[in-house]
Specification:
Distance between the termini: 19 Å
Largest sheet: 4 strands, parallel
Radius of gyration: 16 Å
Helix content: 25-40%
Strand order of the largest sheet: 3-2-1-4
Strand content: 5-15%
Order of helices and strands: HHEHEEHE
Number of helices: 4
């Protein structure tokens, strides 16, 4: 993301939020709670743990979100300013269905798994994909 993208994100940040429609549509379109498919299978011959999937010159910082935050607009403003100032990519590692950062245009990756080990494996795979060295 460059200067233009972060400027657009900064211009979208507001404390107002849309209503959550999950409860309204849950009866008609129930969410699947089936376990599985959370982590892509790792073919031994193609991908290795050391393989970088992003440009090594790009610095990515991950932000772990364990639950939806009430003051997400303030944090989004700080994160976008930090990314713009330091010229880094921000990737949100969300352990909940809705972190709140989606509405501003941040890159949000959903971390899934039925156990702590499965969630750690999923997060580790996302970190390798984005070349994230630092997770806050």
């Amino acid at each position: 993301m460059g200067l233009q993208t972060w400027t657009e994100i900064l211009s979208r940040i507001t404390s107002q939020d849309a209503e959550d429609l999950e409860d309204l549509i849950a009866e008609r379109f129930p969410r699947s709670e089936a376990v599985g498919g959370d982590v892509f299978p790792e073919p031994v011959a193609v991908l290795r743990r050391e393989t970088q999937m992003r440009d090594p010159a790009t610095v990515c910082v991950g932000l772990r979100v364990l639950e939806q935050m009430p003051d997400v607009a303030d944090r989004a403003m700080r994160l976008a300013s930090f990314a713009l100032e330091r010229q880094v990519e921000i990737v949100i590692l969300s352990h909940c269905d809705r972190s709140g950062f989606e509405r501003f245009g941040f890159r949000v990756e959903l971390v899934k798994g039925d156990t702590e080990a499965a969630r750690a494996a999923c997060e580790e795979q996302i970190c390798r994909m984005w070349n994230i060295d630092l997770v806050l």
